[in-house]
Amino acid sequence: MNPELLPFRVLVAFGSGWLVVAAVTSIADAYGAGRAGFVGGLPSTGAVSLLLIGGTQSLTAAIQATTLLPLSFAVAFAFLLFYAIPRRVQFGRRILGAFAIWLLGSTIVVVFAPNNFMISLAAGVAMSSTIYFVHGRIGFKDVQRIPTRFSVGRTIWRGALGGCGVAGVVTISALSGPLVAGVFAGVPVIWSSSFYVTKRTHGEEFSRSLTRSFIRTGILTIIPYSVAVRYFFSAAGVWYGTLFAYIVIIPLAWLAWTLTRAGRTMAEPSATPAHQSDLTTS
User: Fold this and answer.
1) pLDDT tens, 71-101?
2) Which of 86, 91, 105, 252 sits a CA distance of 20 to 30 A from 99?
3) pTM of the predicted structure, to 2 decimals
4) Residue 164 to residues 147, 170, 193, 280: CA-CA distances in angstroms?
5) Could you give the CA distance from residue 174 to residue 178 in angstroms, rounded to a whole number?
6) Residue 88 carries which DSSP code?
7) In total, how many domains does the chain have?
8) How far apart are the C-alpha atoms of 168 and 248, rounded to whole Å?
């Protein structure tokens, strides 16, 4: 890769991460966990990573990076599962435990997974389906959002969390090979940033409830996106391939949207003072 293009990649990655986390957390404030989880579950980090690999390295590198994408996102779904499972665990221990599972799974994928897209796809679908079934057995409360007032400063601060995370992922991807870059495209930085923000604003049970829509939308859109983008990269190039892949998943995204239930606003606005300032006072 041309080293002169690295700052451009990092800047684009920061902007995309900022936009997604700001959108997810603002929608959570306005509509609840369901709609926010839908937005956060759509292809974002992985799509941007592949686009930048293809745009700044080569089309061949971008196609190669899709090889382990289904399996890497299945590991990311395992991160969501292990974040959701503990009931009475502090946020720090919860998120660190989930990241430890992700790191272990990703290491296994990088070291042992065969360089074969069909095997990666089959294993990713099987693993994701199992995770979805197990996650569905977890009892979640119908957690309502706490009303908050919109703040530009808070939105900027929130988005910066995701932006810095995605920029870091893209930097690591740029310094590694395409296969490793494909695995790091599944790093759950958007999800973990959203958990942190919503936990501070709406409580830990609310942040746990985000995992339902993240997993549902991710399985319905991200894995099909990885199949479509691999094909369209070869047929139409990086830019049109990305566009066509997004078009292909529109019906699946619509299905995920219809399955998502908007959160309800709590009746007592007096319950909000401790949360309204969340990141503005950090």
Assistant:
1) 999 999 999 999 998 777 888 999 999 999 9
2) 252
3) 0.85
4) 27, 10, 10, 18
5) 9
6) S
7) 1
8) 29
